[in-house]
Design a protein that fits this description.
Layout lengths: L1 H32 L1 E13 L2 E12 L2 H21 L7 E3 L3 E10 L5 E19 L2 H9 L2 H4 L5 E3 L3 E3 L3 H26 L4 E9 L3 E3 L19 E14 L1
Antiparallel strand pairs: 1-10, 2-5, 2-6, 2-7, 3-5, 4-5, 8-10, 9-10
Protein name: SIMPL domain-containing protein
GO biological process, one term: DNA damage response
Pfam families: SIMPL (PF04402)
Amino acid sequence: MNKNIIAIAVASLGFIIGLGLLGSAIKNRNKSENTISITGLGTKQFTSDLITWSGSFSKNNADLKSAYDELAMDRKVINDYLISKGIKQSEIVFSSVDIQKQFRNYTDSNGNNVQGEFSGYSLTQKVSIESKEVAKIENLSRNITEIINRGIEFTSSSPSYFYTKLATVKQEMIASATKDAKERAEKIAENSGSKLGNLKKASMGVIQITAPNSNEDYSYGGTFNTSSKEKEASITIKLEYEVN
């Protein structure tokens, strides 16, 4: 008899504990479901404060020393020209000289291209400038024909634009995107008759930098436009809140 009473008591206790655990599980499950996820957007437009520009020039000659001497003369003309335009000597960088052997090619009777006899050397050098005087370098890149008019075979590239205070811009956008996400989450909770609870999770997207009002595509790893002086940056923040 006593054994039966003890068995019933143990079973009853187990049943009560089981109900408690089940209730706790249901409560926790419902609690995990009572959340809201929202994505906020932060954007900022700014003007580049750093510019880079480069160009290359070359000389051809059958004699290597003569080709190098002629290239050195062109290099001095280019350097003096840039200095005359207000460019600092410390901003002007000349690369090492690239030397290529040239050959006269011809087509044989079977239509194959055949390398013929040596015809001389082609020497090429690159000059590049990095400066915070954006307008000055822009103007220089547009009027580079002045160098060509001096008899120099010069090829100019398009300028590239950068911003040195990007870390500050990113912080401002993160704050803006977070505020945007929270305000939207509060509005959704309010409209559903609930209140926003604790923040459970936050994740940040990659920064995207494009030209303003452009149709540039965003990329998974982040877009970084360097062709436009005016830029627009954007970033997304995803927040997950509990809802009471």
